[in-house]
Amino acid sequence: IFNENVAMTYNAMQAVVDTGATHLIFASSIHAMRNTVWPAVEDNPQPPKPAYLPLDGKIPAEPMSPYGLTKQVGEMIVEYFTRRFNLTGVSLRFPWIVSLDEVQRHRKLDLEKPGHTSYTLMYLTTADAAALIADILQADLTGYRVYMPGGTNCHCELTARQIIERFYPDVPLHKPIEEITMLVDNSVITR
After folding, report:
1. What would the pLDDT profile of 15-25 be if each residue is shown by its tens digit?
2. How far apart are the first and last CA of the chain?
3. Which residue in 19, 56, 73, 89 has a CA-CA distance of 20 to 30 Å to 13?
4. What global pTM score does this model have?
5. Is 9 left (phi over 0), alpha (psi -120 to 50) or beta?
């Protein structure tokens, strides 16, 4: 997976340059950070802990799998091409991309199995992912940036505060808990 993903990313970015396009958008993954979306396993019943909450594009890459490592290297490739050829580059650390129906089918697991919490609380619908890419292409952006997009409604019975207190009580917060309404901060993307 490492060789294939890295080679494909590099070749795709080179093709962008060769065609004269001016924007690079890379489908990175939440896995470039810590594996905050992997379900719990028997020997580790708690969900992995992010570096801080709410998540955003500033969390340093810290992959814990070969796949996550390919996404970190992909981000580095996009940053290199952006800088080297004076382009606009964006890496999107996508969470679980899914239909809204799928989110609603899985939401019951949030309360039953703590390890599944991250799946339905850190997602982006396919429609929102497509709209985000279209908006990036139309935005007046320069340079390189990393975004961590996330759905704006967790479709579950717990508030963000309850989720943090229940599953992530020892994770540092970048905002007062009273101001956190979702586990992903979309404010930079919105601006």
Report:
1. 999 999 999 99
2. 35
3. 56
4. 0.84
5. alpha
